[in-house]
C-alpha cells in the first residue's frame, strides 16, 4: 500500500508512520511527503528518512482552485493508494477527494469539536473525555465517515498544550494501527459506515 502523507507542522504523526513503515510486515510504504509550507519539521523528518518531498504553497498560485489542482497533481504523481493528512492545516476540494482516497486525523472525538483547535474547544467545554479520530475526508470540516477513534481523559490541571500532547500520544498509535489495518485488509466506505476489508462482490 503506497501512502502519501501531507503535513503542515511538527510531523510527529508522520514520524510514527515512518517508524511503523520501517517494518516490511506493516504493509504500507510512504511514497512521498507533501506540505503547504517550507521549513517545517515534518519535511525534515521525511528528508532524514530518505522519503521524497514536495511543497505546494497557496500563495504561489493565482487561486485556491489552482493550488488545489496542483497539489492533487503532485500527490497523484506518486500513485498512492491512500493519502493521509497528518496535521495538514488546509482543506482540500471535492475534486481532490474524487481523485484520491484521503483520511485525516483530528485531535477530538468527532463529531465533537471540529476545526482547528479541538483540544482548546474540549477544554473550554469542560468535557472529561476527549480523544482523536481518523476519518475519511468528505469535503466538510472533520465530518467524514469514521475509521478509528481513541478516547483520552482530560485532567483537572490540563492546559491546551498538556491535553493536546496527551491526545497526540494516543493519536499516533491510533493512526499507526488503523493505517496498518487498511494496508493489510483495505478500506470500504459505504455511506457513513467504514469497514476494514475488501468490497463485497
Ligand atoms: C495532530 O494532533 C493533528 O491531529 C492536529 O495537529 C496535530 C499535528 O501534530 N491537526 P504533528 O504535526 O503530527 O506532530
UniProtKB/TrEMBL annotation:
<keyword id="KW-0808">Transferase</keyword>
<feature type="binding site">
    <location>
        <position position="64"/>
    </location>
    <ligand>
        <name>(6R)-10-formyltetrahydrofolate</name>
    </ligand>
</feature>
<feature type="active site" description="Proton donor">
    <location>
        <position position="106"/>
    </location>
</feature>
<feature type="binding site">
    <location>
        <begin position="89"/>
        <end position="92"/>
    </location>
    <ligand>
        <name>(6R)-10-formyltetrahydrofolate</name>
    </ligand>
</feature>
<dbReference type="InterPro" id="IPR004607">
    <property type="entry name" value="GART"/>
</dbReference>
<feature type="binding site">
    <location>
        <position position="104"/>
    </location>
    <ligand>
        <name>(6R)-10-formyltetrahydrofolate</name>
    </ligand>
</feature>
<dbReference type="GO" id="GO:0004644">
    <property type="term" value="F:phosphoribosylglycinamide formyltransferase activity"/>
</dbReference>
<comment type="similarity">
    <text>Belongs to the GART family.</text>
</comment>
<comment type="pathway">
    <text>Purine metabolism; IMP biosynthesis via de novo pathway; N(2)-formyl-N(1)-(5-phospho-D-ribosyl)glycinamide from N(1)-(5-phospho-D-ribosyl)glycinamide (10-formyl THF route): step 1/1.</text>
</comment>
<feature type="binding site">
    <location>
        <begin position="11"/>
        <end position="13"/>
    </location>
    <ligand>
        <name>N(1)-(5-phospho-beta-D-ribosyl)glycinamide</name>
    </ligand>
</feature>
<protein>
    <recommendedName>
        <fullName>Phosphoribosylglycinamide formyltransferase</fullName>
        <ecNumber>2.1.2.2</ecNumber>
    </recommendedName>
</protein>
<dbReference type="InterPro" id="IPR036477">
    <property type="entry name" value="Formyl_transf_N_sf"/>
</dbReference>
<comment type="function">
    <text>Catalyzes the transfer of a formyl group from 10-formyltetrahydrofolate to 5-phospho-ribosyl-glycinamide (GAR), producing 5-phospho-ribosyl-N-formylglycinamide (FGAR) and tetrahydrofolate.</text>
</comment>
<dbReference type="InterPro" id="IPR002376">
    <property type="entry name" value="Formyl_transf_N"/>
</dbReference>
<keyword id="KW-0658">Purine biosynthesis</keyword>
<dbReference type="Pfam" id="PF00551">
    <property type="entry name" value="Formyl_trans_N"/>
</dbReference>
<feature type="domain" description="Formyl transferase N-terminal">
    <location>
        <begin position="2"/>
        <end position="179"/>
    </location>
</feature>
<dbReference type="GO" id="GO:0005829">
    <property type="term" value="C:cytosol"/>
</dbReference>
<dbReference type="GO" id="GO:0006189">
    <property type="term" value="P:'de novo' IMP biosynthetic process"/>
</dbReference>
<feature type="site" description="Raises pKa of active site His">
    <location>
        <position position="142"/>
    </location>
</feature>
Amino acid at each position: 500500500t503506497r501512502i502519501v502523507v501531507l503535513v503542515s507542522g511538527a510531523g510527529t504523526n508522520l514520524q510514527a508512520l515512518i517508524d511503523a513503515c520501517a517494518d516490511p510486515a506493516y504493509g504500507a510504504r510512504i511514497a512521498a511527503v507533501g506540505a503547504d509550507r517550507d521549513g517545517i519539521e515534518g519535511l525534515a523528518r521525511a528528508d532524514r528518512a530518505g522519503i521524497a518531498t514536495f511543497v505546494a504553497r497557496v500563495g504561489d498560485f493565482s487561486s485556491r482552485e489552482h493550488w488545489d489542482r496542483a497539489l492533487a497533481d503532485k500527490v497523484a504523481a506518486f500513485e498512492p493508494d491512500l493519502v493521509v493528512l497528518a496535521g495538514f492545516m488546509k482543506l482540500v476540494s471535492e475534486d481532490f477527494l474524487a481523485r484520491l482516497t484521503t483520511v485525516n486525523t483530528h485531535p477530538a472525538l468527532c463529531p465533537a469539536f471540529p476545526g482547528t483547535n479541538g483540544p482548546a474547544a474540549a477544554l473550554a467545554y469542560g468535557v472529561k473525555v476527549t480523544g482523536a479520530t481518523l476519518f475519511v475526508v468528505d469535503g466538510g470540516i472533520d465530518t467524514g465517515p469514521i475509521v478509528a477513534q481513541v478516547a483520552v481523559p482530560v485532567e483537572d490541571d490540563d492546559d491546551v498544550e498538556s491535553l493536546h500532547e496527551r491526545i497526540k500520544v494516543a493519536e499516533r498509535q491510533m493512526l499507526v494501527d488503523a493505517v496498518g489495518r487498511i494496508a493489510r485488509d483495505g478500506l470500504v466506505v459505504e455511506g457513513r459506515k467504514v469497514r476494514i476489508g475488501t468490497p463485497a462482490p
